[in-house]
Amino acid sequence: MPREIVKEEEITLPKVKALLERRQAEGELSHLQKLTYDYVSKFSKIEQEKADALLARLKEEGVSAFLATQIVNIMPTSIEELRTIFSAESRPVLPSELEKLLSIINTFR
């Protein structure tokens, strides 16, 4: 039976991990879910609570939902990494803005 897509949204790796852990407690995961859980377990860099707080803080700073999610997933450690993430934006980002965002990210590590 095909599944119906109810809604689509950008979510962070820590949130995916939490959702799969909840699903695992209810019953066994499918093969694809197990692979996804292994992936998010390896690459989640912070806990879900911190990820949610950082995501909200980045959105308050005017970062789009897509870029904020990518920033939380990657947790860049330098201005250059952050600049690479923002290269998808059509508007230029000032170095002072990047420094401010990096300092916000560093408070959530």
What would you say this structure looks like, in words?
By secondary structure, the protein is mostly helical. It folds into two domains: 13-43, no CATH class; 48-107, HRDC domain (DNA polymerase, domain 1), CATH 1.10.150.80. Helix content is 65%, strand content 0%. It contains six helices and no strands. The chain has helices at residues 13-26, 31-43, 48-60, 65-74, 79-86, 95-107. The mean pLDDT is 93.
CATH superfamily of the largest domain: HRDC domain
C-alpha-based Rg, rounded: 16 Å
Average of the residue pLDDT scores: 93
First-last Cα distance: 42 Å
- Specify the CATH class of the largest domain: Mainly Alpha
So how many helices?
A: 6
The biggest beta sheet is recorded as: none
Secondary structure category: mainly alpha
Summary, kept brief:
The protein is 65% helix and 0% strand. The protein is mostly helical.
Structure characteristics:
109 residues; 6 helices; 2 domains; elongated
Describe how the helices and strands are arranged.
Blueprint: H1 13-26, H2 31-43, H3 48-60, H4 65-74, H5 79-86, H6 95-107
